[in-house]
Design a protein that fits this description.
Elements lengths: L8 E6 L4 E8 L3 E5 L10 H8 L3 E5 L21 H14 L5 E6 L1 H12 L4 E7 L4 H6 L3 H6 L1 H6 L5 H6 L3 H11 L11 H11 L2 H28 L3 E10 L12 H4 L2 E9 L5 H4 L1 H16 L2
Parallel strand pairs: 3-4, 3-5, 5-6, 6-7, 7-8
Antiparallel strand pairs: 1-2, 2-4
């Protein structure tokens, strides 16, 4: 994958809960980039070169994904909660010498990113979330139509071993269908062949199928409860926040896509772009046009 990230360095760092693989590169204020399901850090390859001219990038694989480790789950699913993944990220950034930083996350990575902003507001300068609404609002938005569009939330969260058993009969077919069905074109044309090969390579292994199911189990249990507790306490995201979503992405099925974030954030702005769910790969130009000025404004020393 070095061809996708020319000039970037590779590292492995141990946290209290996992071994995290990451790439680093660039110059300027620190920016953490977090991927989502069913991908790896490579989803950022079309933005990394431009962003690295202005920011020091840290681009990890989340626990359970890519080249990071797949720790054992627990009965409460905390091991795959966004809080546990956030703790990994804070430890990684501290090990690299960054006490505060901006974070941008897509899909599951966006859920890790906003959990970081809620749990440790003093450490997050700015937050960008790509094609998601908060987990609490996502679950509460489910009706028949939304459940059909986002069936994977219900399927992957089923108890072990149901989804694992079904997916492991044809993991690449499931991956390809999932990726294609979430794009605006409904095919795989948006993805670089090298990046797609990496997504397939990692998802084909049983430990990654199991880990990603655990991620969604945590979404239904630990993550939902964590959001619910924050809502009851009136906790909000203090840092400047930007939401970017595809006009044919997953959240667009929820009326007033930016509205859920307004109730969670002190300062939020957002726009849709011409894209499906995978905004950073389907429309990197439009994503950068929104991302860059926001990050420059709110990460300046």
């Amino acid at each position: 994958m070095n061809a996708l990230f020319p000039g970037f360095s590779e590292r492995r760092l141990m946290t209290r809960g996992a071994e995290i693989y990451l790439r680093t590169g660039g110059n300027g204020p620190p920016l953490l980039l977090l991927h989502g399901f069913p991908q790896t850090h490579s989803m950022w390859h079309r933005l990394a070169s431009d962003l690295s001219r202005n920011f020091t990038l840290v681009i990890p694989d989340l626990r359970g994904y890519g080249l990071s480790s797949c720790p054992a789950n627990d009965s409460g699913n905390r091991a795959y909660s966004k809080r546990a993944m956030a703790e990994d990220c804070f430890e990684v950034m501290a090990a690299l010498g960054f006490s505060n930083f901006a974070v941008s996350g897509h899909d599951r990575g966006g859920r890790v990113a906003y959990r970081m902003a809620l749990d440790s507001p003093e450490r997050i300068r700015a937050l960008v979330v790509l094609d998601i609404i908060p987990t609490y609002d996502m679950w509460r938005a489910f009706d028949a139509d939304f459940a059909m569009r986002t069936y994977h939330w219900l399927f992957l969260a089923q108890p072990d071993p149901l989804p694992e058993t079904l997916i492991q009969h044809a993991p690449i077919a499931f991956l390809d269908y999932t990726l294609a069905s979430w794009t605006k074109t409904k095919n795989l044309s948006a993805f670089d062949e090298a990046a797609l090969a990496e997504y397939r390579f990692h998802y084909a292994t049983p430990e990654h199928v199991h880990a990603t199911c655990n991620d969604y189990r945590a979404g239904w249990t630990y993550d939902y409860k964590a959001d619910e507790a924050d809502r009851k306490l009136g906790r909000i995201i203090e840092c400047p926040t930007l939401s970017i979503w595809g006009d044919e992405g997953i959240p667009r099925a929820v009326e007033g896509t930016l509205d859920p974030w307004k109730s969670w954030c002190k300062h939020v702005q957002g726009n849709s772009i011409d894209s499906g769910h995978f905004v950073a790969e389907e429309n990197p130009k439009a994503t950068l046009e929104l991302l860059m000025p926001f990050l420059r404004e709110f990460t300046a020393a």
